[in-house]
Amino acid sequence: MEFILNSVEDTISLGKKLGSLLNAGDIICLEGDLGTGKTYFTKGIAKGLGIDEPITSPTFTIVNEYYGRLKLYHFDVYRVNDIDEIAEIGFDEYIFSDAVSIIEWANYIEELIPKKCIWVSIYKQPEKGPNYRKITIKYDGNRYNYIKELK
Amino acid sequence: MRILSLDSSTESATCAILDDYKLFGEITFNYKKQHSTVLMPMIDTLLKNLNMDIHSIDGFVVSKGPGSFTGLRIGAAVIKGLSQGTGKPFVGVSSLDALAYNLCYTSGIICPILDALRGNVYTALYNFTNNKLNMLSDYMLLSIEDLIKTLNNHNQPVCFIGDAVPKFKDNLTSNIKQISFSPANLNLARASSLGELGLKLLKSGIQDDLYSFAPFYLRKSQAEREYEKKLRLQVHE
Question: Is ipTM beyond 0.90?
Fold first, then answer.
């Protein structure tokens, strides 16, 4: 599924719609260059989960935890040099829990990502304008069929 | 020798005080991992109700893994703190040994399985002969399929115990002939089992070092993971 958006607000709003559909244990992977809006998309998801706290990128903490309609684990693995660093914080115990997990830069730790997940890629569209983004959402697993409801 | 034993490697938060002849008391909560909030009050309650002082404990035993990353670290931190503060020794014992010991006097192979996620289990094979628990394998991280193969090669009755039993019971039952499962009252990590094994070690002079001790997590090696990744890629092509 593809979305062409041209503002930060649209990115947040799409995230919010997704956030309102999520179920316990869902895993969302985010891929895209620096400054494409992965964290804004996450802010939207958090809103959709009913989380009021400000969301900041866990670039240095690796993972932040929030409490809303569901618990949210927000990962950023950009800084990770070795996949073992992530495995050794007990990554599996986080993502196979009943919380929602969002993983920014998931492509860096692809071998730790379960097959059944939502994969969101965000790319700039400089030929259309500086604020244009193409957001592609793919998923594997029947549990994520609700993605079809996103418009 | 009187010891305090603690196991937080699985969902079970469990603490016991025992000596050679007697289990004085044991508290176990086998419900949702909440180790960081319940462990210290449990130890405190146990000591108070037994009218014992932490300084009357001669040594400590803690689960050294495998199991939950966070749980193992909480347990190790607590026991290291108590050991350093009181100046008494401590020793780490595997949670798998302790689970197998729950099933002592079982004939055939005793096979504890802890859920390692992604279809894998932490496991080791044991038997109980001449009043002693014997290890028949190393500590292993195996897929359930590989474990079934390994056990079928042994061709002996197997009794399973551990938190991965509910998840894999059907699969195991349909693939292993002589099979049984631990009753629920024994199927949990108990600090008394861990403590009894640790007590023997401490009495024979075996102890762990405060500064170098770390739990073991049994991760697959880099080489194994790369190999699996390669296999996955081939499937996709």
Answer: no
